[in-house]
Amino acid sequence: MSPTAFGVVLGLGALGAAAGALAAPALARRYGPGPMMLVALALTPLTQIPLLLASPALTWQIAISAALFLQLACAAAAGTTQRSIRQVVTTDDMQARMQAASTWLTSSARPVAALVAGGLGTRIGVRPTLIVGTCLLLVPLVVLYRSPLRGLRQMPGDRDQAAPSRPGDPLVQPSLPSPSPSPHAAPAGEGQRNPAADGGGTA
Predict the structure, then answer these.
(1) Most buried one in 29, 79, 185, 187, CB count within 10 A?
(2) What is the value of pTM for the model shown?
């Protein structure tokens, strides 16, 4: 590809990601979050086929552009939906910890994956490495299919309703018991005088 064609291909891919993120809520409501994510993850490996078969020609550049658009649309639709589910089912006091763990896992895997991909590309060639990467795209599909999320037909409820605060939550102030009345205490109103009647004196 020329530099211009390569930039156009990447730009179309970015538009696909935006389209997938915008369409995700409507697709999840219509088909259910679980089935929608399953279809998106199943389509993702198929979008690699034009790249694996491509040769230097305008037709293949168009095919790669369309495949990248669909691939990033599927990734954005599935990604935004699963992040929304995580936020809904996680209690408020665990939101930051959940997000930090997710970011740490994904970010720490990227340098390792880049190193492995570069080593494979040098040792066995670029096209075989792309085939390996395409096969690895099946892993999220298998994991999701074997999880309860595959049958999820609607988004979970609000966090406040779905996950009440647990005892011992540091963000919840314990209620203080009301003091029990003394057995010798006088009933309310007895032993008192009206301050206005006797100049402010009390019993």
Answers:
(1) 79
(2) 0.68
